[in-house]
Structures are given as structure tokens and as C-alpha cells.
UniProtKB/TrEMBL annotation:
<protein>
    <submittedName>
        <fullName>GNAT family N-acetyltransferase</fullName>
    </submittedName>
</protein>
<dbReference type="InterPro" id="IPR016181">
    <property type="entry name" value="Acyl_CoA_acyltransferase"/>
</dbReference>
Length: 126
């Protein structure tokens, strides 16, 4: 497993969620055997908050620790807002200290709602 930050990550997440991302954004993903299998797109940076769209698979402790270090230490955010339609990702976010704060209806298209999960710096498990 290798952590990558190139354009393939945003392309994978975009394809999986069916939504294009508009710059500026950054991305962090997981590459296995030369293929990006999971990723996070960081966008809508608002100083204390950063939106995080997550899709794919392969997320391990090392990746999650790096994700938290980027958001909470490097960027200095107080929270991250996770947007996903995958219940599996919601469960991971909850294990990391997140709480479901709402549902964005049709966020990913007709009948494709997004869970809004807030993870506070003080609640982050890594």
C-alpha cells in the first residue's frame, strides 16, 4: 500500500460518487499494485472546517493517522465535515470520533443522499 496525492485520487473519488470537484482542492489516496483504490478529496476549506468526500476502500490506520495530521495539524482545522453516501464510510467516521449531523438529500444526484458526519479535532481517535 502506498499513499498518493496525484490527480488519479480525485478522478477515482469523482467517478465513484458521480460528482466533479472544482478547484481548489487537494486529495489523498491509497494505491495498491499501481491502482488507486480509495481516496479522500479535501475541498471547501474554511479555516476551521474542511469538507472531506470519501469513497473507495483500503483505508487503514496509517492512512487515517495521516489524514488527521493533515487536517488537524497541518491545516489547523477544528473539524472536518465528511460527506459520503457509503454507510461503511459513515461507520469508519464514527469510529474515528465523528457524529452524524445530517443528511444532504440528492447531494450525489437523484435519490443519492449524502450523510454529513462531523469530526471534531478534540474527538479524533488518532
Amino acid at each position: 500500500m502506498k499513499i498518493v496525492t496525484d490527480e488519479r485520487v480525485a478522478l477515482l473519488v469523482s467517478r465513484l460518487v458521480g460528482k466533479a470537484f472544482v478547484a481548489p482542492f487537494t486529495a489523498m489516496g491509497i494505491e495498491r499494485d499501481g491502482e488507486v483504490i480509495g481516496g479522500v478529496v479535501f475541498n471547501v476549506f474554511e479555516g476551521t472546517d474542511l469538507h472531506v468526500t470519501v469513497a473507495g476502500r483500503g483505508f487503514n490506520r496509517s492512512f487515517l493517522a495521516d489524514l488527521g495530521a493533515y487536517v488537524f495539524q497541518q491545516l489547523g482545522c477544528e473539524r472536518m465535515t465528511v460527506l459520503t453516501e457509503q454507510v461503511r464510510i459513515v461507520r469508519i467516521a464514527e469510529k474515528l470520533g465523528g457524529e452524524i449531523e445530517g443528511l444532504l438529500r440528492n447531494h450525489f444526484g437523484r435519490d443519492r443522499d449524502a450523510y454529513l458526519v462531523g469530526i471534531l479535532k478534540d474527538d479524533w481517535k488518532y
